């Protein structure tokens, strides 16, 4: 019995936590027998104990955030020190901006956003599955799960988001489908972010679609375009759009068996054998993250070539790659996998140069976001925590708990930008979870913030 030992309870807890068939309760200072089974009726299963521990941690972090106990992630870092170093010429403009955003990120406060819609019956009734912002962060495309099956699509205008206003407007039209959506990408066919690439699956078959964004607005009811491109495919996981004119308005889909690329209007898209769980297009080069853990690039102008010779760059993770993002200079690529690893690769030296620790993933396809101007990396883990790292040195800056209890069907979807709502917009994080939309705004009232 650890109670009669001279060593501390904490040491005994570390020594005996893995005792087979038992668990140690530090509050009651004693052991309890674990019961067999994995159902919800057994209160002392390993899974239920882990969930209880995670929930206690989440509630404690939420309480600290509400009491504004957030401090900087680096010891001694504050706004006065950053400003003084800048004035002395010890910080470049880029480093100074990154540190300011780092301080602001640590001070973000959660506020709930009201979603207004012409049809009040469709707001707040279905769970958000994902949100994707356009290039200017003026709009977000939303995908909601519908109770009777399938998905509901919509577009939300963020122009009303501000310091004093927490209201956003849903476009007039909603689009319903019986297909589940795996991936969404904004596409620029007639002008910037004019269309949406959608990857949907059903029992059989799946579908890849190119949908006009103007379809969701009733501003010109007499001139409503229809779906430009839609073709049936097997189970698909990812999509990407290419802006390069040499690619002739191409978008790519990562299927279970192969990778397809197609131009708008093509019926039979050319394909490559390896499957792609994650994709990213830059110039006419397509980067693919695969179930095998391999990341490779393809020049889509050479779609007639076959064999390994068309793989220009090859990188390897130990687990299935779920997200790939290319930095603006196109010398570095970031990839996340199902082992929770996030790595920054140097494409010239073909080696990993940084690793971002703390991300949690076991089997989900979770997106990764890079904000180079702010020097930040954002990812939501399978444990429902949103983590923000410094892009420059991979330091974990902030871990944000979900406002709702953690579960597989309530993983938040987030968008971060210093201009939410356009060029004159507000900075911060937008989080969609369950039926709610939250804005984590920069707060200048905190003494740690500039």
Automatic annotation (TrEMBL):
WD repeat copies, ranges: 317-355
GO cellular component, one term: Cul4-RING E3 ubiquitin ligase complex
SUPFAM superfamilies assigned to the protein according to its UniProt record, in alphabetical order: WD40 repeat-like
Keywords, alphabetical: Repeat, WD repeat
UniProt-listed InterPro entries: CUL4-DDB1_E3_ligase_receptor, WD40/YVTN_repeat-like_dom_sf, WD40_repeat_dom_sf, WD40_rpt
Keyword Repeat: yes
Family matches, as Pfam families: Beta-prop_DCAF4 (PF23761)
Transmembrane segments: none
Protein name: WD repeat domain 21
